[in-house]
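Weekly puzzle thread! Below is a chain. First person to post its structure in token form gets bragging rights.
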Amino acid sequence: MIYDYAKQKNKKNYIRWSMIILTIISVVMVLGLFFSVFTEYIQIKEIGDKYTDVFWINFNIKLIAQLVSFFTVFLIFFISTMIIRANMLSRDAATDILKRIAPILLFSFIISFIASSLIRETVYNRFLLFANAVPFNKSDPIFYQNIGYYIFQRPFLISLIESLLGIWLFQTFYTIILYSILYISNGYRTISDIIYEKGIMIHNLVNIVIFFLIKASTYKFKSEDILYSTIGEVLGAGYTDIHVWFNYYKIAPFLLIAIVILTIIFLFRGKLKYSFITIAVFPLSWIITLFIAGLVQTIIVQPNEQTVEQPYLKYNIEYTRAAYNFENIIERDLPIKNNLTMQDISNNAVTVNNIRITDFPATLTILNQLQGIRNYYRFVDTDITTYNINGSPTAVFVGARELFKENLDESAKTYVNRKFRFTHGFGVVMNPINRITEQGHPVFTIKDIPPNSIDGAPQVLQPRIYFGELTNDYVIVNANNQRELDYSEGQEDVEFIYDGKAGIKLNLLNRLIFALKYGDFRMLVSGYITSESKILLNRNILNRLERVAPFLDYDSDPYIVIDDHGRLKWIVDIYTTSSYYPYSQPIGGGINYIRNSAKAVIDAYDGTVDFYITDQSDPLITAYNKIYPTLFNKKPLPEDIARHIRYPEQMFKIQAQIFSKYHITNPLAFYNKNDLWAISQEKYRGENKVVDPYYNLMKLPGIGTDEEELVLMIPYTLVKKENMVAWLAVRSKGENYGQMVLYKFPKGVNVYGTMQIENRIDSNPDISREMTLWNQGGSTVIRGNLLVIPIENSILYVEPIYITADNESSLPEVKRIIVAYKDQIVMETTLERALMALFGENQIIVPDTGESIQDIIESALKTFQDMKIYSQKNDWENFGKTLKQLDDIMEVLQERKAEIEK
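Winning reply:
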């Protein structure tokens, strides 16, 4: 008796402690959710009050999704558990826990909370797009449904059905397992003991029937999945998909329902054998269909594939080109004449003067070595954009000098330094992509700390960078008795107090919140923090954007520009993507639709964020604009920002890769693959690699424009061939932004590809000899990017040659420029000299009598240097011409001298 009493007491204690633990878990989960929501809200509010509307729209939809899914899951599990309880109580087999309603409620609550949290994150964004769907101007060719159905509505419906299916499957197994545990714990040992208990059998059968009814509803979506099929040569529904699988998915749900009904009947009659046979019919039907599909593919399709699959190949081409925005591409034939003269070079002076002769890695290395100034600054990137320098459009590199605290001396990595003292980067460096010093280093038009602008470069009036690519931590500004380091002048530190609008004031509540969030309890006790101090957080610009709009895709390469007010602004390209565009070829990550439909601008000083729509024709961005009316700025990009934007390289790489195959629009040619292209290759830094897209400031021929503009371009060769067949360009300026232009070379004419030029450089004895010499004595020769430069109806190839010492602190120096044209290759100290060596016979230099004496002397010196070049090459014809030019210049100089003496 004493034993029974102790046993009963232990059971009560077990139940009591179980209740306490479950209650604590529930309270912690709810408090954690509240804390997460509140901290998210105040962070978004700090970025901009208008973005709190985005937060509340998302919050409300998430809340509704969680409540609906919570109560749905709760009811399912609570009712199921109560049925189990009733069945067990009737057999005196229920445990003490099941006898109590409270544990059942609490258990159902926890399961429902976890499940509904997962469903919320899966469903909320899809529901918003579902409810704000925008039609495309195209329908699929099989089901004749608007593309908008596949992009907006179908994903939500699928996620809804799959969530319900997953919940019900879990609940079904939960029920079976719980019955089994209860029966085993009460002395039942055989499966028949459980199966033939009528109430239990009905309960389990109802669960199974409902599961298969839900499953049957998914076959509508499975039939639509053929639009993304990969059977045979067709990407999308092909002959076998249409004639076999499409029909199977029509009858599969009815077959499944019939099998479920028959199985239940056999089970109630105790005919287990027939039940299993009936169940086996469904997987058998799938196997038979798979076999039939294989026969059709082998016997009907493959022997006549070119003819049979032709209409479906046409769909694949058409829809892929639409998904990647190739429908409005301009195509031009570019006959190659290779008849350039120096006059043509002069007529295209802006293009020639903006040929990039400095590479990204080398420029970045030099920026960090020469313009890092202090060990705690770093240039993480440098990007090309355009500015008017001295009234002339110029392509320039612009790099941000950001704070990199990891490089601080270990003794300087104190809490005060990391959070209060070292808070921001300082300024930018600008250098034209086509200018180098005598030492082979970039010519800086903005440099040093504070920023010094020369040669007509824009003035930087607010150089401080609190928000950037390397600002991955939080800092505290407006501290008590602790100023920020602005920059150093010699041994003296110039200090600064932040006066921007970014940041959250650290009152007592906020100090507690962020101390908990970051695990930084020194924030609670630091005497440097007052109620006027502010915490700057979300300082990484990509994280800042994702905090506001996590549903958009952001380019991984932001670039910095200087606006007309001298402020530094980051520009980030925004993409809308989908994996659900029918018949479209997917690329990395399964994406098969992409648009560069918006841009974000972030102020580097105060973190102000503005979103702008740049492609109003994109239904996805239109849908997001409907969902979040305050997210996108109603005004267009400011002019002082718009003039510096460029088409994103990341987007163009994707398009160029897809276009290498989908430039073919004839289904038969597409099937035969006899005109597949490949992106050209080059020898870069000792390795063969695919040519990256590159920016050129140039005139695009044949499209009705005479102005130079910034274009992003890439050359193509035939697959497994090296000769160049075409080049693709995309424009960046104004209303032509995103306009793609394809230039195709005549098929009967050989145009050297980049790798062919590289091989010709290798085989040039003079160049090889010099490179061999340079590679000795602790130096290394680095061959830069080989650029293809179309001018008029000719092609120039330009490649810089760097020399660097074999140590970490060495500076790569541009020592030579190689220029190839037709069958000629020259290597000179400057691009100008290389062009002179190629086209000098046509150059006419007649000094203007209005020139200064200094100008005439410089012209004479230049002509004399050219004479030396021709003398070294034994080119006596051009030597004689330049000698005559020098004589003419000297005559002018004598005349000017006589005028001065008078």
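Puzzle host: Confirmed. Bonus trivia for everyone else. Confidence is low (pLDDT under 50) at residues 842-850.
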